[in-house]
Amino acid sequence: MFNKIQKMAVSKDAVRVYTFENIDVEKPPSLLVRYAGEGNTPYINAILAYGRKQVSKGKVLIDEAHLDKNRRQDRELYPKYVIVGWEEPMVTDEGRPATDADIPDFIAALPVDMMDRLRAYCSNPENYRGGTEAAV
Q1: Could you report the per-residue pLDDT of 127-136, keeping only the tens digit for each?
Q2: For residue 18, what are the β-bridge partners?
Q3: Which stretch of DSSP H or E encloses residue 31?
Q4: What SS3 state is found at 136?
Q5: Over the stretch 10-52, which tens digit does the pLDDT of each residue have?
Q6: Which of 20, 54, 77, 79 reaches 20 to 30 Å from 119, CA-CA?
Q7: 63 Cβ contact partners less than 8 Å away, ≥ 6 residues apart
Q8: What is the residue-wise DSSP string for 66-131?
């Protein structure tokens, strides 16, 4: 009866290209990214495990420091569960194209606003509905 709506679910295999247009280089770096939401079971399980640990410690204070902890947590989790690889690698300070092994360092180096833009993109299911899949 509502098959059209059910077909709008974000595929767990959906991968998109996220380009850092605001990095001032000749070729802005691009990452292949998965949805950072309930369709991405490994990512969600890691988030829930962290949350359970905080609750068991009695640390459920929601404040500015909590936001920073969430961002730091995503800096660790995104390279493992959200980022698939480079579409257009960043050129490192040494002048070589970054490899997948460099992604955690790249994510760690992002200023807060750039990390927040990446997180906003990856957590928005509309970015993963329909459209063309990135080649992985």
Answers
A1: 998 765 665 5
A2: 31
A3: strand 30-34
A4: coil
A5: 888 899 999 999 999 989 999 999 999 988 999 999 988 877 7
A6: 54
A7: none
A8: HHHHHHHHHHHHIIIIIEEEEEEPPBPTTSSB--GGGHHHHHHHS-HHHHHHHHHHHT-GGGGSSS
Q: Which two tokens stand for residue 62?
A: 């929601």
The answer to whether the beta carbons of residues 35 and 121 sit under 8 Å apart is: no
Element spanning 47, H or E: helix 41-56
- What tokens appear for 96 in the block? 């070589």
Task: Output the pTM of the full model.
Answer: 0.85
**The pair of three-digit structure tokens given for residue 53, joined into one six-digit string:** 């640990």
Q: Which residues contact 104 (CB under 8 A, 6 or more apart)?
A: 75, 76, 79
Take residue 132 and report the two structure tokens written for it.
């063309």
